[in-house]
Specification:
There is one protein chain. The protein is α+β, with helices and mostly antiparallel strands. The chain has seven helices and ten strands. The strands form three sheets. Strands 4-5-6-9-8-7 form a six-stranded antiparallel β-sheet. A hairpin with a 3-residue loop joins strand 1 and strand 2.
Length: 244
């Protein structure tokens, strides 16, 4: 007997049993898991032990929870390539997924010191702020805040902003994206973000911060994308050139 083998914990057994049900199709993508009470009874365990197994599967992106609704099996992840050369809607539809965008608010705001620095603005500058929700196959997966330089986009707040901003920039302002700079970090859902994504406070999310430049190399806007961490897989091909 190998004395170095660590016995699998009860929560580990539960995790593997649930994973087998998911991989075998008994719990299909988007399907709701039984309640925590029912699962605890099914596995003859405590709610604490069961929660350890569920949190492990959540961390792996195999299940997700919605506040006051329970646990669900995560659908396949969207492959998200930051160097993709076209707009977001096209990237999604190429993967045979359905995307929709809902505008939450549009307004003019005072740039924070951090945004002033990132966008190379003078202190106390004004910005256009657009807040939107994006859904994949009917499930809300991303809350995003766009901050635009007003001088580059006069009257844009009056347009249909549920459309692709990339297409609006090009068709109405003659502005095309050049390069973009990305910062991608794990984070936790709080406040408006948690509420918009129907997540419990503190749930894991992925924050994608992007600064966008036009075809002439000038900064035009930035985005804070708050993703359900189980919804995307970041994929970058080092042979892919910069966006042009």
């Amino acid at each position: 007997m190998n004395m170095n083998v660590v016995p699998r914990s009860q929560s580990g057994h539960i995790r593997e049993a649930l994973l087998a049900q998911i991989d075998g199709g008994s719990l299909p993508p988007g399907g709701k898991l039984p309640s925590e009470r029912e699962l605890a009874e099914l596995f003859s365990t405590t709610r604490i032990t069961l929660k350890d197994a569920l949190l492990a599967l959540e961390a792996e992106g195999r299940i997700y929870r919605e506040d006051r609704r329970g646990w669900f099996v995560a659908p396949p992840r969207l492959i998200y390539n930051p160097q993709y050369r076209s707009h977001f809607h096209e990237m999604v539809t190429r993967q045979q997924r359905e995307v929709s965008t809902r505008v939450l608010s549009v307004r003019t705001v005072l740039a924070t010191p951090a945004l002033s620095q990132e966008l190379e603005l003078a202190p106390m500058s004004r910005l256009y702020q657009i807040r939107r929700l994006r859904s994949l196959d009917g499930r809300v997966v991303m809350y995003v805040e766009h901050h635009l330089k007003p001088a580059r986009f006069p009257d844009i707040l009056d347009k249909d902003l549920s459309r692709s901003l990339t297409l609006i920039y090009e068709s109405d302002y003659g502005i095309r994206y050049g390069r973009s700079r990305f910062d991608i970090t794990p984070s936790a859902a709080r406040g408006e973000v948690a509420q918009a994504l129907t997540l419990a406070e503190g749930s894991p999310i992925l924050l994608v911060f992007r600064i966008n430049y036009d075809q002439h190399g000038q900064i035009i806007d930035c985005d804070h994308e708050y993703w359900r961490h189980d919804a995307i897989r970041i994929t970058v091909d080092s042979q892919t050139g910069p966006i042009v």
